[in-house]
Amino acid sequence: GATIGILGGGQLGRMLAVAAARLGLKTHIFEPGTNVPAGDVAHQMTTASYDDAAALRAFGEAVDIITYEFENIPTSALDILEALAPIHPGRNALATSQDRLTEKTFLQDLGLQTAPFADVTSMADLDAAIAQIGTPAILKTRRMGYDGKGQARIMAPGEAGAAFDAMAGAPAILEGFVDFSHEVSVIGARSPEGAVACYDPGENVHSDGILRTTTVPAKLSPSQRTDAVLIAAKILNALDYVGVLGVELFVTPQALIVNEIAPRVHNSGHWTQNGCTICQFEQHIRAVAGWPLGDGARHADVVMENLIGDDMDRVPALAKSGAAIHLYGKAEVKPGRKMGHVNRVIKAVGT
Ligand code: ATP
Ligand code: MG
Ligand code: MG
């Protein structure tokens, strides 16, 4: 069978490698860090920096298909790899989602709604953006942010200076604060032939910028649910996408507002491991390996809870609770670090 190269050896890479193994496929992880979650389960591992052209070339030559678990892969590395093996999802999906300004512009050009936004590279830009968008607002670095890192809230114009300083000179965007009732996400997949399958939207609760829980079904009207899936499909088709994509949405009475997209399997899709026949990880491997997509039908109501930092202390009790436990094998517990998750199956659909 084919060997799938995965850039990134974190928990998403680990769960992709497990899914690939179940399909009889081999995986080869490329990851700069040592002692990483995917290392235990991948067939092969290259530990090297993204600056190491020789290591990248050897990796690219050893694999048949390349995919990734995170979107911040350096362009120089992609230039080397794309000559050696197909990269799925493609580079346009990466380029679009690596930069919040490019991403929001792409979404608006598709006719989708986003928070109002403005490019901010100087304090003068920020003052002008606040005059235009108002407060409250959020200043976010354009690149590299995750789990709410690289963001500063501006509740009143007087807080602009401190927020600008917090960006430490990195290019940023100012986003108007969306007054949403709740957050949902759609995990969708597209095959090379253009087939699209989306999972039922999940409802997401964050605290301190980190996802805490995802619940399916989400609180959505039938028309909102359809709208959410159509938004995801529109994005998948516009990017000529291959693989699984996460789309984060804010729910307001007027419309669904797109927050951001992630060109990969997504934390808010972990519930599919115990709520669907084909989970998001298998679905992604199927798509990138050119297999038919599985359908996204949900057979159960599920609550996914992330285990963050000291939540690991609850594992013995959780193990007795009937919840499905997924641990990432991380060497060290740290505050704010995602250590695992549990899926509680609440009841079967239709019962
Ligand atoms: P992720 O880990 O999901 O990639 P991130 O660091 O990219 O997170 P965002 O998704 O942009 O960050 O923001 C994190 C959370 O902050 C959102 O899920 C939402 O709760 C809140 N948030 C972000 N932008 C806005 C906004 N414009 N209006 C209101 N709330 C927002
Ligand atoms: Mg993000
Ligand atoms: Mg987000």
TrEMBL record:
It catalyses: 5-amino-1-(5-phospho-beta-D-ribosyl)imidazole + hydrogencarbonate + ATP = 5-carboxyamino-1-(5-phospho-D-ribosyl)imidazole + ADP + phosphate + 2 H(+). Gene3D superfamilies: 3.40.50.20, ATP-grasp fold, A domain (3.30.1490.20), ATP-grasp fold, B domain (3.30.470.20). ATP binds at residues 100, 140, 145-151, 175-178, 183, 206, 259-260. Residues 104-289 form the ATP-grasp domain. It comes from the Bacteria. Keywords: ATP-binding, Ligase, Nucleotide-binding, Purine biosynthesis. GO terms for molecular function: 5-(carboxyamino)imidazole ribonucleotide synthase activity. It holds the Pfam family PurK_C. Pathway: Purine metabolism; IMP biosynthesis via de novo pathway; 5-amino-1-(5-phospho-D-ribosyl)imidazole-4-carboxylate from 5-amino-1-(5-phospho-D-ribosyl)imidazole (N5-CAIR route): step 1/2. The keyword Transcription does not apply. Its EC number is 6.3.4.18. It is an enzyme of class 6 (ligase). PROSITE patterns: ATP_GRASP (PS50975). Belongs to the PurK/PurT family. Homodimer. Catalyzes the ATP-dependent conversion of 5-aminoimidazole ribonucleotide (AIR) and HCO(3)(-) to N5-carboxyaminoimidazole ribonucleotide (N5-CAIR). This is N5-carboxyaminoimidazole ribonucleotide synthase.
